[in-house]
Write a sequence for this structure.
């Protein structure tokens, strides 16, 4: 049996804590730092996500995890100028892997604060430089170049958690965990997600473009490793809004949709033109943008005496009508759900965020109502036939 001692469990009072295997060697090596219990839960879940995402799409993949759910997941597609500004990468040379992490981190920067990062490929220097300037707890990857490792070892006063995983590792087919002194056992969820799951298009609109299929598969793979109930919005090869751990499906759809709307609004010319003070840090800029876009809080950030700590000049407000007009022009968003939609209200809410393609298991007694709602909005919807609950 091999084991690795941890600082503590979920909370400081939960000691002792360790990860171990009854047979064989642990598939991970800690190269720096001392990861904790939750760090490794994030690490193992996020690694599975990016590994499967790369296999499905054939591109480098990255994820940004918080509390055992992805704040963002993405493929290594190039960034346009607006995304470079939104993601604070500026003129930094970007490899495909670096683009993947910039996208994953940028999907929901508020939630990604203090994240655990996962990379499908060997971490290169450009990706390490992105991580260097973000508030992050750790990273897992199949390897690190010498230059990347040297950069990452300087984070957090030398205590940044760096984990290498054996990419050839295959876990046992049966998994177990103890809860309240009782051992639970189940078969590992090794269900393969590929394009065949999108064949059963049940709506009048039967057209799914290549980009939509890519983004729908991205949704499904992300949902496979998101605490349920969960709903995911995606566009352009990345998630733009993930709703996790909600008791109600519509609450998932609203939560993820609100995040997706904020991501869209970060493209608005007024947001891109916000005159931030040069000494304002990234986290404070993210907080300020979030306040600026909030109907309830935007007035506060622009109040006399408060804006001066954030901006060089007082910016123009972005009105509710302007935001709604901008979002009404959004289209081409994809959405996935880890279980069936029980009512058409989920589709109605999704369409307010520009959704044009949906994948979900189907199987509700109200499937006809959900399909009718899609037809009324011209949305294409596929039934994948497989629930993806994750707990």
């Amino acid at each position: 049996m091999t084991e690795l001692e941890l600082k503590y469990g979920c909370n400081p009072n939960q000691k002792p804590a360790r990860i171990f295997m009854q047979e064989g060697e642990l598939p991970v090596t800690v190269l720096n730092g001392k990861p904790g219990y939750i760090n490794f839960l994030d690490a193992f879940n996020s690694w599975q996500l990016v590994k499967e995402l790369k296999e499905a799409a054939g591109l480098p993949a990255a994820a940004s995890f918080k509390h055992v759910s992805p704040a963002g997941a993405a493929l290594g597609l190039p960034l346009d100028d607006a995304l470079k500004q939104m993601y604070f990468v500026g003129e930094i040379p970007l490899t495909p892997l670096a683009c993947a992490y910039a996208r994953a981190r940028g999907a929901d920067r508020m939630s990604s604060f203090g994240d655990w990062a996962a990379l499908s490929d060997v971490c290169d220097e450009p990706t390490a430089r992105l991580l260097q300037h973000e508030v992050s707890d750790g990273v897992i990857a199949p390897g690190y170049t010498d230059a990347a490792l040297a950069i990452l070892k300087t984070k957090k006063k030398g205590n940044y958690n760096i984990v290498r995983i054996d990419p050839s590792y295959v876990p046992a087919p049966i998994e177990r965990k103890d809860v309240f002194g009782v051992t639970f056992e189940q078969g590992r969820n090794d269900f393969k997600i590929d394009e065949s799951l999108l064949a059963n298009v049940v709506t009048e609109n039967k057209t799914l473009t290549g980009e939509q299929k890519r983004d729908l598969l991205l949704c499904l793979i992300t949902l496979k490793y998101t605490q349920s109930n969960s709903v995911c919005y995606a566009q352009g090869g990345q998630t733009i809004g993930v709703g996790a751990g909600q008791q109600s499906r519509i609450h998932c759809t609203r939560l993820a949709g609100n995040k997706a709307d904020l991501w869209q609004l970060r493209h608005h010319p007024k947001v891109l033109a916000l005159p931030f003070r040069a000494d304002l840090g990234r986290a404070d800029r993210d907080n300020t943008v979030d306040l600026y876009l909030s109907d309830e809080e935007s007035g506060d950030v622009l109040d006399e005496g408060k804006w001066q700590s954030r901006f060089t000049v007082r910016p123009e407000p972005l009105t509710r009508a302007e935001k709604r007009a901008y979002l009404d022009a959004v289209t081409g968003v994809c959405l996935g759900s880890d279980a069936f939609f029980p009512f058409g209200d989920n589709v109605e809410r999704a369409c307010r965020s520009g959704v044009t393609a949906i994948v979900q298991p189907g199987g509700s007694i109200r499937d006809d109502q959900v399909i009718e709602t899609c037809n009324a909005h011209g949305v294409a919807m596929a039934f994948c036939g497989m629930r993806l609950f994750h707990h």
Notes: The chain has a mean pLDDT of 95. The chain has 14 helices and 15 strands.
